[in-house]
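Deliverable D4.2, example record:
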Amino acid sequence: MAAKILVVEDDTAIAALIEASLDLGGYEHQTCGHGNEALFRIQTEKFDLILLDIMLPGLDGFQIMERIHGREIPVIFLTARDKLDDRVRGLKMGAEDYVVKPFEPRELLARIEVVLRRFSRSNQQLIYHDIEVNLTERMVRQGGEPVFLTPKEFDLLVLLIKHVDEALSREVILQQVWGYCFVGETRTVDMHIMQLRKKLDFQDRLKAVVKIGYRLDN
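Output generated by the structure prediction step:
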């Protein structure tokens, strides 16, 4: 199945060139020219890659990146802004690549292919010390031995590893793992954290952060 790419570009001539390039590469694609519309599509549809301009009406490319932080979608910035500070900022925000306009269609296709291939490989497995997490099979091994986790324990472990050394609030954990917003008091997160500590011997690494939530230390 061809990868599905979202093109976020408000210049219709450049958008047409990108679309023609993607057609040559055999990719499925959609295009939108407004930052707010792009964010809505990202939140409601599934894409394998986003080609993102920075200067857009509504939300700009950097603002979109901030709002989709944590989503497993690779992003390539495709923009006329060629200042070093912009390139560094884009990459630090999590973009996989930064392409400056004007661009050669063949080079763009090559960069897309590299990012999709790299992301596909890295997206199948997570490594944390002696723990291997197979995202495709939803299997966990520690020191080569299988560890049996419940579905929510697995999802919680994945979230913690992907945000290692970051303090995650209970609200964020509930939203990312259980899919609902935090309302009032709950022990759900605490109970699952307790189980992960026991099953994976995380007593020294999975720490409570006062008035925030939890942090998995590297």
